Amino acid sequence: MKEEEKEKLEEEETLKEEETVESQNAENSEDAENSEKSENSEEAEEKDPLVAAQEEIEQLKTQILYKTAEFDNYRKRTLKEKAELILNGGEKAVSAILPVIDDMERAMENGEKTDDPAVLREGMELIYHKFTKALEGLGVKKIETENADFNTDLHEAVAMVPGMGDDKKGKVIDCLQTGYQLNDKVIRHAKVAVGQ
To answer: pTM above the 0.85 mark?
Structure first.
């Protein structure tokens, strides 16, 4: 029995020794890990602003690349749209005028069948009114000159008429060529005679 007790005591002692060795190893490894962590954290603290700045620089570079590409695509798209507008910009005007051309062709065909000038005149007036309405639909309107004050923004004086009296001084006396505006922009000044 004594031998068995001795063996048990020896086994217990070896187990205790192993546990102490393991605990010491664990403590040593924890100390090593802690020291490594503290070293790493010190290095991380030292490198962290630099690394953060570099990461921010990379992000900004990426953003600049995206924005540059996006702007380049926008510029190309707008140039393409402008080119299409220049090429096809008159499409609306031409579409508005085509019915007037059709009416003129019909009037010419019917003009050959009749010799009555009143009928021809009436047809021409109808076509003229249709044409002016088509132009108004496009934003074109006449510049009014009847009893209007002379305005250099709208009128071009081609003649000065003296001796018309004080009430006609600076006023439009006669319109020699009608002027037109497109959406309030003068596209042709009215040529007028002005009282002096």
So the answer is: no
